[in-house]
Amino acid sequence: MQFPKSFYRWRPHPWHGLEIGSKMPDVVNAYIEMTPFDAVKYEVDKTTGYLRVDRPQLTSSMPPTLYGFIPRTYCGDRVKALSSQSVKGDLDPLDICVITERPINRGEVILRARVIGGVQMVDNDEADDKIIAVLHEDRFWANTNHIDSVPAALLDRLRHYFETYKLVPGATGNVKVLELYGPERAKAVICASHTDYEETYGG
């Protein structure tokens, strides 16, 4: 039996087996691990590619947007070079937050996302940027091309979530949100992370 070339006979690994997207860095593919309905932190298992439970959310904070990563990206030396307060990249795929008008209430989905900005975050001295994007072809956000066009209340929620999502109640955290930035820098971070990936894992 012959299969079409675009057909995956076996389930591809979401980090290594999916494509970053032919229109990157403007529009990228995103693999969604978490939704705004999740009170548990889910994370892809790097060995198997399946979604696993990382931990229950430690505080009442829940992600205000869809949250996942961009396939075939890696936060290594080039991403670190764009983050002056980091000592290294976090050695994970590049995180992405995707805004959409229609609620998506399940994770482990693939979507196309249009890049509009990002969050510069440092976690335990590691560069841990979060790309901000809107669901591609979502008509509600069709004219949103820059993070400055996103309501301030939503940006405040994103900042607060990332400042607290690893915080153990009663302890002091070591996560710093340094700034929110626009699409030009976000696209530079995506390109850097894709080059880091190619150098680390090959084409």
Quick overview of this protein structure:
The chain is an alpha+beta fold and 203 residues long. The protein contains three helices and ten strands.
Explain this structure.
The chain has 203 residues and is α+β, with helices and mostly antiparallel strands. The protein has one domain: Inorganic Pyrophosphatase. Helices cover 18% and strands 30% of the residues. The chain has 3 helices and 10 strands, in the order E-E-E-E-H-E-E-E-E-E-H-E-H. The chain has helices at 77-81, 152-164, 183-201; strands spanning 27-34, 40-44, 51-56, 66-69, 88-89, 95-99, 109-123, 126-127, 130-135, 175-181. The strands form 2 sheets. Strands 1-4-6-9-7 form a 5-stranded mixed beta barrel. Strands 2-3 form a two-stranded antiparallel ribbon. The mean pLDDT is 93.
Write the layout of secondary structure elements.
Elements: E1 27-34, E2 40-44, E3 51-56, E4 66-69, H1 77-81, E5 88-89, E6 95-99, E7 109-123, E8 126-127, E9 130-135, H2 152-164, E10 175-181, H3 183-201
Parallel strand pairs: 5-8, 6-9
Antiparallel strand pairs: 1-4, 1-7, 2-3, 4-6, 7-8, 7-9, 7-10
Please give a handful of descriptors for the protein shown:
5-stranded mixed β-barrel, 3 helices, Inorganic Pyrophosphatase, 203 residues, 18% helix, alpha+beta, single chain, two-stranded antiparallel ribbon
